[in-house]
Design a protein that fits this description.
Structural class: alpha+beta
Distance between the termini: 42 Å
Largest sheet: 13 strands, mixed
Number of strands: 18
Strand content: 25-35%
Number of helices: 6
Helix content: 25-40%
Length: 310
């Protein structure tokens, strides 16, 4: 697939058939995912420099020219950064450790298989990092976001998921972890096998049994039963809300669809809702259903990608 179609997709200007074609292409192979993520980082880097340049308030024609120059320069700069960090000379008596990093843009999901055979689904706006020297003695990954793991069992080897506040240790098992640093949230749910959850702040270490989950609040870490397995259908492109308040739902919509939602009608925030949606249908399809249930209206500014509920 050529870069023009991928860039159109990243910019949010692709049609629905084009979006589906690109999404299928990304998920078809690891090489495609890496190429897409590299282009995404290049585009983001270019936008960052374009924003800085625009602050000088130069003529519009110059801004457009700079955008193209920035995109070319970003490729060179990005290549230099990657090369410097991964292939830099080791410090004396200490070899530099290289990492692979995967980032999933908003409104998308990705599937990959780690070198040990562990299968991972990554949700929207999720980053997963693991060492290139990934072996039975070093099976640690760093997660910021949400992921569904099917860990490959290896005798005598623990698989560890490190998040901002907690570590999840497993051998061969299937579980879901939601740990977005931007929301300071944490939840681990065990589907099969056994995992333990350890806190960074104290010696707390909790073991889960299949069908259990553990989640954080402002004051405690709470263990209980999984309420509904459909909650983890996000890896199939389905959003399931089970008796969740509109306030929580709106927060998730902002996260999954990379949009800012301002609620002027505060009365709706505590209204509960249960239902399923396809992520490919977009945020407005969700809002059209929710507004009938919660009796609100909304407006969307397509230029700023902002939504106002009133």
């Amino acid at each position: 697939m050529d870069d023009r179609r991928l860039t159109k997709y990243i910019e949010g200007n692709a049609s629905q058939p084009e979006k589906e074609a690109v999404a299928a292409w990304i998920e078809s192979s690891e090489a495609n995912r890496r190429r897409f993520l590299a282009l995404r980082r290049t585009y983001d880097y270019a936008l960052m420099h374009e924003t800085e340049y625009q602050q000088t308030q130069r003529p519009a024609a110059s801004k457009r020219l700079f955008t193209e120059i920035a995109k070319i320069a970003a490729i060179i700069a990005l290549t230099f950064v990657i090369t410097t960090n991964i292939f830099r000379k080791p410090e004396p008596e200490k070899a530099a450790e290289a990492f692979n990093t995967f980032f999933v843009p908003a409104g998308q999901r990705a599937n990959l298989t780690l070198p040990d055979g562990t299968n991972v689904w990554l949700n929207s706006k999720t980053t997963l990092t693991y060492p290139t020297d990934f072996n039975k003695d070093n099976r640690e990954v760093i997660l910021d976001g949400e992921a569904y793991f099917k860990v490959k069992h290896t005798d005598g080897s623990t698989f560890t998921v490190k998040t901002l506040q907690y570590d999840i240790n497993a051998t061969g098992t299937e579980f879901n972890v939601a740990a977005y640093s931007c929301y300071k949230c944490f939840e681990a749910a065990l589907i099969e096998g056994s995992v333990s959850v350890a806190s960074h702040k104290n010696k707390l270490n909790v073991t889960l049994e299949p069908g259990q989950r553990i989640y954080s609040t402002d004051t405690a870490l709470i263990r209980g039963n999984i309420r509904d397995l459909d909650h983890y259908l996000w890896k199939e492109g389905i959003l399931k809300f089970q008796n969740e308040t509109m306030g929580v739902i709106i927060q998730k919509l902002e996260l999954y669809f990379d949009t800012k939602i301002t609620v002027n009608n505060r009365k709706i925030l505590d209204i509960p809702y249960t239902g399923k949606f396809w992520t490919n249908d977009g945020v407005e399809q969700v809002l059209r259903v929710l507004k009938i249930h919660a009796h609100f209206n909304y407006e969307k500014d397509n230029e700023t990608n902002r939504i106002t509920i009133y």
